[in-house]
Amino acid sequence: MSALLEIDKLSLEFRTRSGIVRALENVSLQLPEGGSLGLVGESGSGKSVLSFAVLGIQDAAATITGGTIRFAGTDLLADGGSAMKTMRGRELAMIFQNPRVALNPIRQVGRQIEDVLLRHTALRGAAARARAIECLADVRIPDPERRYSAYPFELSGGMCQRVMIAIALACKPRLLIADEPTTGLDVTTQAAIMRLIRDLGREKGMATLLITHDLGLARDFCDKLAVMHAGHIVEVGPTETLFRTPAHPYTAQLVRATPVGQERLENLASIPGNLPDLRRGDLPPCRFSERCELRSPACATPLPNLVVSPGHLVGCHHPQARSSP
Amino acid sequence: MSQLLEAIDLVKRFPVRSKGRKKLLHAVDGLNFHIDAGETVGLVGESGCGKSTLVRLLTRTLDSTSGHVRFRGQGIGLIAARAMADHPLRREIQMVFQDPTDSLNPRYTARQTIAEAVHLLTDTRGWAAIDSAVEVAAAQVGLPPELLDRYPHQLSGGQKARVGIARAIVVKPRLLVLDEPTAALDVSVQAVILQLLDRLKREMAMSFLFVSHDLNVVRLLCDRVMVMYLGQIVESGPAREVFARPLHPYTRALIASLPGGHGNDADLLVGGDPQSPIDPDAHRCRLFGRCPRGAERCQTQAPPLREISRGRSAACHFVAPTEREVFIDAALTVHKLHLPPARRAALTTEFDRVADMARQVQSVRLPDDTAPAPQFRP
Ligand SMILES: Nc1ncnc2c1ncn2[C@@H]1O[C@H](COP(=O)(O)OP(=O)(O)OP(=O)(O)O)[C@@H](O)[C@H]1O
Ligand SMILES: Nc1ncnc2c1ncn2[C@@H]1O[C@H](COP(=O)(O)OP(=O)(O)OP(=O)(O)O)[C@@H](O)[C@H]1O
Ligand code: SF4
Ligand SMILES: [Mg+2]
Ligand SMILES: [Mg+2]
User: Fold this and answer.
1) Which residues between 91 and 150 in chain B have a beta carbon less than 8 angstroms from any beta carbon of chain A?
2) What letter would DSSP give residue A152?
3) Which CATH fold would you assign to the domain B3-233?
4) B28-85: pLDDT as tens digits
5) Whole-angstrom Cα distance, residue B286 to residue B302?
6) ipTM of the complex
7) Is residue A209 part of a domain?
8) What stretches in chain A show pLDDT beneath 50?
């Protein structure tokens, strides 16, 4: 299988008044046509920054200092990202983490879906309107005909989120980047939306990059997982393998911190320590080392990229469990 | 415990246009409830059922259509949303918004955002003192100090959410209203925040209204839970009891649909669209059409919220009456009296009081219980 999305050794920095934030370093990922990859990691680890980079919509203060992003064989970073602009919205779509900000506050939501359809499909007039209403119904918005003419402020938080999803799915893109698509939705709606995304994936061969802090959701939905910590991908592998036999100590802690019917508040585990300050000049090669129980002097040397088993990679000097044979 | 906040017949209707005609969307439809000092109340319900609208009514950022809100006995429902900014009560009720990006000023750094709240709403004066208050709050919510000088667009989703929480707790309000505060947080940070809230509750007797879709979190954190469906409360009671033994079909469906839950599939909502919140039929149960138990009666008679047992209420025809209800019914029938449902609530309280007295009386040892049996000398 050739990869639809191929990120190779991507590094990205932000200039800020108080120094340079090294937000991504040597990030590599592959996502095949129709595949689903979960990107997990604690808040601030660089998940959104990475997905913005794929879409070429990062902050003016951001600079890509190395690496490549290829989509269906095209280099997205070439010519100042011109290839990206033509594909964005049609072949590549994104569901943003902050739905209200991503929607135009002074345009009816139905029209915003129609705008996308007019731009990227042959649908016009009444047909476009009918399709827009269908898109609203697909994401389980009750009373879609009336909601067509609602403004974002008239909708609840969860409905705005679903409108956002409807816009992203309207053109049946080849790659969907979904940044926390269902946070703040109740379980039933959440399940319906994930089913919709999965069905589109199966029917149209749409690939999905799912960014989430809900490991349970990632486990249900994704074939593969990539674990991010402080701008590094520390482990990639088949979902079940990562859950059963996490090789990186950070993945292991993340899995352990997931509450499953915990009985008491005190039993909720948090991961000790914070992400390191990404402006520091002396960031160690392993950005997890200052929080790691397994640290040894070897951890101050450049990180290996170990293959634990085919398709299961880890960047750590002391990988934990080996995959069982 | 004393009542901190009370809502009485609270209503919010939004004028909307539907098929060219003006209609009313009943977002919050006659709510009655209270929050005690030091109590954590969870509010759960489907997306769009009116949770954020209720929150905005209570924090006075939206004017109600009718009804009352009392805070520490004082009516605050009539303070216009616009005047609330300068009102002395603003300090006592703080709010964490559903979308942190929406509520943070893009021109303020995290430090400035939190410091502004300290400056405007507390008695702390002097830059050094304000700054140390800011840093304490940031540390409490797990926000690393080096992020304090960043603007919102330079922060990740979860980092912004923590700025919003820090800004609210730094003021030390009596009531903290949180609308989906943990949605943007990963499990590790979430654990930090939940443990912090729990500590604030115990150490400062802070009260919370906690809106969340995450039933697990509500179960862990909240003393009491209220379940909302299409603008109305359909069930309320102690959180542990409600989750262990849900009474209302909607609550049962929520619990049955939890991933990895041990719910019963027969409890799941049946297909069919939810009813429209626009000009709903006042004589029909709002859940009808999706309710696995729905029957003839549910179409013609809207079930009132009844107190089923002490502290537990539900609004469904099929929640079996308790002995207490049967007793009250019998008393009313014998005396040929009729009472509207709202008035019956007073009787249940009275019934419980009598039961309490009976229990006390029972435990009092009467002199002849203990006195040795009279001895007869032959
Ligand atoms: N414009 C910017 N300038 C400086 N730093 C930034 C900027 N944008 C993001 N960052 C930093 O980059 C890091 C990664 O941010 P990102 O938004 O990708 O996190 P995330 O993994 O999506 O987290 P979350 O789960 O909280 O959304 C964070 O530490 C953030 O503070
Ligand atoms: N300004 C407004 N004008 C018209 N309708 C509105 C307005 N604000 C809210 N509504 C409607 O009121 C209902 C309740 O919305 P609310 O935001 O309270 O829902 P919610 O329970 O918070 O949902 P979520 O979990 O998705 O945030 C929705 O049907 C919404 O469309
Ligand atoms: S490289 Fe060393 S410090 Fe880093 S995670 Fe592995 S064992 Fe821990
Ligand atoms: Mg993010
Ligand atoms: Mg809401």
Assistant:
1) 98-99, 101-102, 142, 144, 146, 149-150
2) G
3) Rossmann fold (3.40.50)
4) 999 999 999 999 999 999 888 999 999 999 988 899 999 999 999 888 877 777 777 7
5) 8
6) 0.83
7) yes
8) 1, 323-325
